[in-house]
Write a structure and sequence with these properties.
219 residues, six-stranded mixed β-sheet, alpha/beta, DHBP synthase, 10 strands, globular, 19% strand, 6 helices
Length: 219
């Protein structure tokens, strides 16, 4: 019977041990694919700056190459090299909701591979808020993908037990932090246009965002 490729390690969702984080980060830096908890669903993490491993995520998820992948960063200092500009409205959203349940879409710089952006020139970025995700990005030392660990078109997974076997069979490591609570996905906002456009409503409601942005317009 062939040996399974993947390994599951239980990790404390609030205070992950550094040895486990370092093991996962080392895998990612070697081109590996790791399932890890985010503030919304379990995610698929690879080095975001490596086009070859980014392509692996598309294959595993059976995702259209025209659909960009979002990435996670761990500090505001990470943002500047990745985006062409941070508009005033984006700054206000960052101040209000990062780290948290909002993904902002910026014009990408050439640092990011074209396949990561779906060849749109735009990239969705979120400041990691889950302790495991944040620690993992820090340990890798560069952005990682944060797309949900599900087949394209299927629901995100709040527990490792919900992962599709087709996903599990193609990853190298799974960090199990238990149930993530099922609060829903992040809200996605395109800040490359004025006014910003809500592409997907998630945990943060469209009504709340519109109120904040309208307030800024009248300030």
């Amino acid at each position: 019977m062939p040996k399974k490729r993947w390994e599951i390690i239980t990790v404390d969702g609030q205070s992950p041990d550094q040895e486990t984080i370092d093991k996962a980060a080392a895998l990612i830096k070697r081109g590996g694919l790791v399932v890890f908890p985010t503030s919304t669903f379990y995610g698929l993490g690879v080095q975001a700056l490596d086009a070859n491993v980014v392509d692996r995520v598309f294959r595993v998820k059976e995702r259209s190459r025209q659909k960009p992948l979002l990435i996670l960063i761990t500090s505001m200092a990470d943002l500047a090299p990745l985006v062409q500009s941070v508009p005033r409205m984006a700054t206000r959203l960052i101040q209000a909701y990062w780290p948290g349940h909002i993904t902002l879409v910026f014009q990408a710089t050439d640092v990011l591979p074209g396949n990561l952006t779906g060849y749109t020139g735009k990239i969705g970025i979120r400041l990691a808020s889950h302790p495991v995700a944040s620690a993992l990005v820090r340990a890798v030392g560069s952005p990682i993908t944060g797309t949900s660990a599900n087949l394209s078109g299927k629901a995100g997974c709040c527990e490792v037990a919900e992962l599709d076997r087709k996903i599990m069979d193609q990853v190298d490591l799974i960090l199990d932090a238990g149930s993530l609570g099922g609060i829903g996905g992040s809200t996605v906002v395109d800040v490359t246009v004025d006014p910003p456009k809500i592409l997907r409503e998630g945990v943060i409601s469209a009504e709340k965002l519109k109120a904040l942005l309208e307030g800024l317009n009248h300030a």
